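agent> Task received from the user: take the single chain below, predict its 3D structure, and emit structure tokens. No templates, no multimer pairing.
agent> Plan: (1) validate residues, (2) run structure prediction, (3) serialize to tokens, (4) report one or two observations.
agent> Step 1 OK, no nonstandard residues flagged.
tool_call: predict_structure(input=
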Amino acid sequence: MAQGVGFGARTSLGGGIGILRDDAGDDRYEAEMYAQGAAYFFGAGLLWDRGGNDRYRAVRYAQGCGVHQAAGILQEDSGNDRYALRFGVGQGMGLDVSVGVLHDGAGDDEYAAPSLAQGSATANGIGILVDLDGRNQWRGSGGRLGWGRAEWYRKLPSIGVMLYEPSRAAFERDGKPESATAAHAAIGGPAAGTRAEHEAEHVPQCPQDALAPPESGLALAETLQKLLPSLIAGRGDPQIYAAVRARLLSDPGASLAELPAGVFDIAYAIGEALRCVLRSAPDVEAQRLWDEIERQLAATPPPRFAGPLLVALRGRPAPPAQMQRILRTVGASPRCGLRAFALSLRDAGLPGAGDDARAGLRSACWREQAEAIALLRRLGAAPDPAAPVASFLRGQ
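)
tool_result: status=success, residues=396
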């Protein structure tokens, strides 16, 4: 978190601006993560070096990288420069609705990164690398993203762009030269023309729930934070999970009320824990959870954990009539993300699904439009060609 980094606390305190400017001289920048023109959660980070033959070395999330709704920029005006990332995720890379930019204005430069770098993006980000001057060398590995390639996510595009002068550029992958023609440069990078693919959404595997809960004495928030690392790794700790499961089944309303707002780890963990608990709960206990979810989602203003409550319904939807009421309520929300989530949970067999999909097409929210198109596909119907759908969604 140095050398031109803006950093916010995810979900609780967005923002933060960090700028490092160096006007002259041959400089060496070394760091590990979140560095050298990087930003996190609504932050803005800039490293601006105006001259000299400079060396940049880092591990990941560096050298023009934005992460989670942020903007990270590395501006290098001139000189023969060297950029190296050991893991990747940088050198003009945007992750999760973020922008990452690396612009080198002049000189003979070298770039090295395994993947997720050099004009790439994931999760609806934008990654841009621009170097139109000098003789430049680009090195990568067998990773799937880089050199102008990005993948779709949440049914929406990510954008990777690499701008370079093809007559003076050399590309190398895993130590072997790779061709890069003027046609490649015209479309934004050697890998920009490959077939678009959609990132698979990560769904953590549910832990076993047969063990009796331990008497830990910890608050539910602390227990969820202990569970999260193993849950993300796909092997959720059964004993910790049993403690969470017991709390949620005994009194779901009180359990949710005691959780602090604005802590991403807790919001993520409670959504996945509820999904797993609901999936395996006996019918009577499942109904108690569904009733609490419906009560919370109908509240005004919307609950702090509206998103996690909808995640829970992915594991096991409520009975049709109750699910219909829940989705009607959420579908009237002023929040684009919640309306889109409601459409994603819509069963094509529920009454009014077609009307909801057609209404979603008229939304100004791209996520809602994308989910409306997916719902129409489940209904076996085509979108209205006159609907004001974003151009990149047509034909999806």
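agent> Step 4: summary for the user.
The longest strand covers residues 82-90.
agent> Done.
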